[in-house]
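Quick question, first post here. What does this chain look like in 3D?
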Amino acid sequence: MHSLKKHSVLALGYFLLIALLGLLLRLFPVVELPINYRFLVHTHSHIALLGWTYTALTTLIYKAYLSKASIERRYRMLFWCTQGTIIGMLLTFPFTGYALLSIVFSTLFLIASYIFMWFFVKHTIAAQKKTHAYKCIYASLWYMVLSSLGPWALGAIMNTAGSGSDLYRNAIYFYLHFQYNGWFVMALLGLLLYFLEQRKIELPHIGFKQFFWFMNLGVMATFCISLLWMKPSNSVYIISLLGSVMQLFAFFILIKHVLPFKSKVNRMDSKLFYLSLKIAAIFFLVKVFLQLLGSVPYFASIVSSNIDLVIGYLHWIFLGVVSLTVLAFLFHSKLIELSRTSIILYLLGFMLTEGLIFYKGAMAWIKEPVMQYYPWLLLFASCLLVIAIGSIVILQLRQTLVQKLRLK
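> Answer (accepted):
Ran it through. Tokens below.
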């Protein structure tokens, strides 16, 4: 348990780092910096997905399914090898972008993630493998593996079609889609079901089957949204729309079966945890409605040529749905401490940055200039996120210090 707390604090360290890198990216329109912007974007995205989210999710999965297996020493070795690849990317991407060393570290990370999945499948006990939660997390890890086909393909694409080709862009979208909507979302849904199962709350078999298949078919079908920038045939738009509708059905099926236990869950857990999950559920519902809109040809053509709307959507999922839920589960699992103030600051920073990013996207859509002080406002909103995440990290360090003083 003690080592898992250290792993969680390390994940939070990555979270703070990506917030600082995001703040640095927001400085570019304001001051001239002697840094390669594109290289910094690569660093920011890799540490966000592989440093913060992967480390936090795998720590939660290990605690739930593998902490009682006799693999602690092997898992620790795997964990620190994985961290070595992340640090390697952190030290190479800002200076070289996609080059030999950064690609080597990225490749080693993928191999380490495959080994984690093998640990999960091999060492989870038979009784847990029969649960609904396990099936969701098992599916999420397959999405993680599936998403890695995108990076594997990039080398061949760059040597043939080139980095400016449609194939190159689609390989990146393939990776991002199955990371965000497959690996991250399905893992969090699995952890939610695990949390409910620990309280003797289980979805009925038919209800879970409907939820599971609608959600997974929706994940597969909504990849087509990532292809709409190419203006494909009408069938691709229809598949995209159906995928979004299936995910909407899955969401309401889950809510339908969980709501009757609302009072029981509320009594057994902290209000901060419960409130965070409710807000994240609302954010997820907004995400699905944005997918529905993005499947309509008119809006698809607007989004495909509007980078701010794309960034706003990705940040909505990453910061609003995924990161907030991860923080809630780390807190619930007693791996980190949270305060109401830090969550309020985080949500305020998140909503302000999202509002400003979508505002800029809307102005580009209607071909109007943004307000004069827009870059400074976005910088200020980003500072709130840094302060919020920084306060969470400081809370962990203070807690560690207090525990050490008590031991003395």
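The mean pLDDT is 92.
Residues 131-305 form one domain.
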